[in-house]
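user: can you give me the structure for this one chain? tokens are fine.
assistant: on it. calling the predictor now.
[tool input]
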Amino acid sequence: MGIAPMAGMTDSAFRRLVKRQGGCGLVVSEMVSSEALVRGIDRTLEYLEYTEEERPVAIQIFGGDPATMAEAARVVESRGADIVDINMGCPVPKIARNNAGCSLMREPARAAAIVAAMVAAVKIPVTVKMRAGWNEREVNAPEIARRVEDAGAAAVAVHGRTAAQAYTGRADWDLIGRVAEAVRIPVFGCGDLVEPRDILARIGKADVAGVLIGRGILRNPWLFAQAADLLAGRPAREISARDRGRFLLDYIDLLAAENPDSGRWIVNKLRALCGWYTKGCEGGAHLRVAVNHAPSVAGLRVLIATFFGTP
């Protein structure tokens, strides 16, 4: 079980806190531009930061040029990452229009060439995260998985939606199973894993090696720990309101330790997280509104502590 990459959300502080709850194995960074990495842009290099407690760590990069992706993979390896992952799943137009993200699934030869160039450039494993396909008429994940396997990919993760679907509809886990049947390398499934029992239902199947979770872990950072309880035959642990409040306060503390003079940035990070974190929470809509109007980090702390009853 691992954390899937989510731009603007799965930063090092969040990943560390999820790891501390238990049950989480691999963590994957937010996606990073290969072009920016090769040029050494400081803001981009910050995405490569991680701590030892997060290991094993995969750094995910995106791009469409094999040579640039290979050089970016060398940068990732030089930073000590355990794995370099290729984004072939992002449906966002500004990424996809540049022969990157999910648009690579429309160019199997280019996708394979990128994998081959990266595998030749580094010693760490090269993995791929993809979608079911571009749209309902171009569902080709099994074919792409075979191509990248032949090019040297060590594993693939498949989100069971097309790029056209984005995050609408339901993830196609039957397709994920067909991908697993098509290749010999490990296949990890993604999509619609929001309850511990969802993970239990998927991870127990022989056709997937494991799961990666994005939005579900933003709603419930204890999801891995609760699934681990079920897998061990124990009841899933109960999470109190105080626990939920403490997680947010600890997140603020970690962000503040990294950037003590970035109050506005911290407030904006909490606004983004609370959009997911408060879903299904009694009074969650009111908390989201309040967080969106919080004037400072100090005000945010008081607001969270009061709402959740956290000391």
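assistant: here you go. The CA atoms of residues 196 and 227 lie 5 Å apart. Strands lie at 2-3, 27-28, 32-33, 57-62, 83-88, 126-133, 155-162, 187-190, 210-213.
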